[in-house]
Design brief:
elongated; about 70% helix; AhpD-like; about 170 residues
């Protein structure tokens, strides 16, 4: 049992919570666990879902790079829910089994581009910054400042979700 109740239905919710619940279901096709927690603060839930939509569906990053970064952040923060929710999507987006296994065990050889993305996400998650050499490597891999900003925002977003769900006991 989690620390904070998951709001899985509209029963007993305020008018604002019901509005946000409906918006999330309409935008996602169903209610998702992060928003079951965030609905306790409905003023955060909808903007968070809007940012998540932008990051997942409107961004410049390839599906491969985006999903690799998401599962790397999930591992970095120990959020099994995010890992379980995205590892299949990562496979569908072309993330190799070798890279997935590397994230699970820390072992094995992986493609150079995947190593650059994984290294960037891990360093950002652990230090809240990246070294100049890591920045240079991700700049070369992604080819511009826009994708780097987007990747950094993605890491921040999934860190935010992970923190909220971990505190709630929902990871």
């Amino acid at each position: 049992m989690g620390r904070i109740e998951l709001l899985t239905s509209k029963d007993g919710l305020s008018e604002k919570q019901c509005e946000v619940f409906d918006w999330v279901v309409e935008s996602r096709g169903k209610m998702l666990r992060p928003y079951e927690v965030l609905l306790h603060a409905p003023g955060l839930a909808q903007p968070a879902a809007e940012l998540g939509h932008q990051i997942r569906y409107e961004g410049q990053l390839s599906g491969h790079d985006r999903e690799l970064a998401i599962i790397t952040a999930a591992k970095a923060h120990g959020c099994a829910f995010e890992w379980d929710s995205h590892v299949g999507l990562a496979r569908e987006a072309g993330v190799s089994e070798a890279s997935i296994a590397h994230l699970e065990t820390g072992e094995g050889d992986i493609a150079a581009r995947d190593e650059v993305i994984i290294g960037f996400v891990r360093e950002l998650c652990s230090t809240s910054d990246v070294s100049d050499s890591r920045f240079a490597a991700i700049s070369e891999a992604l080819g511009g400042h826009g994708p780097i900003v987007e990747l950094s925002a993605l890491v921040g977003y999934y860190t935010f979700l992970g923190f909220v769900m971990k505190v709630a006991g929902a990871c």
